[in-house]
Amino acid sequence: MADTDYAREVFLTGLKNAHAMEKQALSIMQPQVSRLKHYPDLSKRLEAHISETETQLERLSEVLDSVGESSSTTKDAFLSTVGSTAALSHVAAADEVLKNSFANLAFENYEIAAYISLITAAQVSGESKAVPLLEANLDEERRMAEWVAGHIPLITETFISLKDSGETAKV
């Protein structure tokens, strides 16, 4: 049987990390939305996921409050800055929309793994009341990852078609 004190420590650290991770997600997605003129479905889905992410942050704050903790301002700020930098790193690329799509899919899968681990830590540490809120976040991340993966072919085809016709395909 696992040491529940250590399991709780892992859970609390993971919870703070998840909050910072979602702040990072916002800083990655928000700059992309305004740069997707030729990709309205992608823009619409990113806007919807931004809203989901804001709700996920509320859920994480609710769990943090319920265990007498708060988010880590330092982690939130640091990962938000990292996310903004990551989002800007593809702006100069001729295939920006493709690179962003690949990065979005990778980040969604990272979030999925983080929530699976966090749910496990919640269960092991006896914080099972947090599980439904964390599972709601996990379900949204899985749906977003599935959507991005399923739309990479269409995004790629649109990019090629626009580029081939002489249009600006980046945004």
From TrEMBL:
Organism: Palleronia marisminoris
Phylogenetic lineage: Bacteria, Pseudomonadati, Pseudomonadota, Alphaproteobacteria, Rhodobacterales
Coiled coil: none
Gene3D superfamilies the record matches: 1.20.1260.10
InterPro entries: DUF892_YciF-like, Ferritin-like, Ferritin-like_SF, YciF
Official protein name in the record: Uncharacterized protein
Any Pfam family hit: DUF892
